[in-house]
Amino acid sequence: MSGSQIPRSNPDRVSSPTSSKSVTQTVNGSHQFVIQGYRLAKGMGVGKHIASDNFSVGGYQWGIFFYPDGKNPEDNSAYVSVFVALASEGTEVRALFELALVDQSGKGNHKVHSHFERSLDSGPYTLKYKGSMWGYKRFYRRTQLETSDFLKDDCLIINCTVGVVVSEVQCPRLHSIRVPDSELGSHFGFLLDSMEGSDVTFDIAGEKFQAHKLVLAARSPFFKSKFFTEPEENNREVTINNLEPKVFKALLQFMYKDSLPEDVEPVAAHTYDLLKLPEMYETLIVKLLAAADKYNLNRLRLLCESHICKGVSVKSVAKILALADRYKATELKDVCLKFTAENLAAVLETDAYQQLKDECLSLQSELLKAVAGYEEASNSTGGAKSQSVWAQLSDGGGDTSSRHVRQRTT
């Protein structure tokens, strides 16, 4: 029989050097939901829940829903219910889940419902749309819960782990070239330190600073306008009033190195609690925020806002809100309004809020809108509504014996 023959396939000998591999695995993430004031939440009604803040795992947003009176009317509030819900719009998500009620005695006898560490007959669970849930209507019998080590100081702790299923095709790359991180900032930083080729001198309260017009013009619309529209002879030496040398030095570092200087004050959760507003205005970071506003340095403004935001707390939020409004720090202002809305009763009692109320009347209407919007969102998800927002703002507080302070997130 004539003609060409088709060679037989030999799996041990592949003529082509190419290959690929499909890998399916989970991207895991966890969130801890602390429920303070459990006994006050009881009685809110079957099917009504307390929701955690949203958290991100695998590129999707998730939330934990706790039902103190249960989710199923047929159970007559005999059980608490716990669910994890998809909070992202759009697409189907396959995932594994674990919900654990934490044993607060330290014995480690947690109540765990988990997809992990066991075989799945039908594979991971599929959530098809925003609001889809996985969990248990009968998570734990309520009478047993209330006499257990899971409840301590009227507080429950729920740990949730989500494992989002992802697949990717891996292809070997025989050769690669590593590209180092950008050195632009370090190169311009050297230019700042050496001042080689500088063509403008700044006089700041008698202290001289040399710089490069092109660098400053590229970074700031203010300096671009000054150097390119005014006569050259006016821009060989520039005097700037009402600016301290240390602030201008920090300003130059940002424009050359794109970073905050090392001598900016570190900020933690309660850094601003004991400082009065005039004292806060004297800190380097706030003076930099003011300079960013004056010289149209939007990225510097955001860096300063992000840094100051770390100090938002019940005692400081009214002061930070005032300085954010003064320097057009819109992102920081939004954080302060949201934080105040979430912790209204506690914030209204602070001395800082009383001063804000008397001196910054224009912020009252914005605060009222923020609080009203927060309560409307809480009611739409079935959350319990506390004293009316209108009453709280008018009488300056409310019952503080049971107030709960939500933690700020970044």
UniProtKB/TrEMBL annotation:
Positions of the MATH domain: 28-162
SMART domains membership: BTB, MATH
InterPro entries: BACK_BPM_SPOP (IPR056423), BPM1-6 (IPR045005), BPM_C (IPR034090), BTB/POZ_dom (IPR000210), MATH/TRAF_dom (IPR002083), SKP1/BTB/POZ_sf (IPR011333), TRAF-like (IPR008974)
Gene3D superfamilies: 1.25.40.420, Apoptosis, Tumor Necrosis Factor Receptor Associated Protein 2, Chain A (2.60.210.10), Potassium Channel Kv1.1, Chain A (3.30.710.10)
Location of region: Disordered: 1-27
Similarity-based family: Belongs to the Tdpoz family.
Reported function: May act as a substrate-specific adapter of an E3 ubiquitin-protein ligase complex (CUL3-RBX1-BTB) which mediates the ubiquitination and subsequent proteasomal degradation of target proteins.
Example GO biological process: protein ubiquitination
Record's protein name: BTB domain-containing protein
Pathway the protein acts in: Protein modification; protein ubiquitination
Domain BTB: 198-264
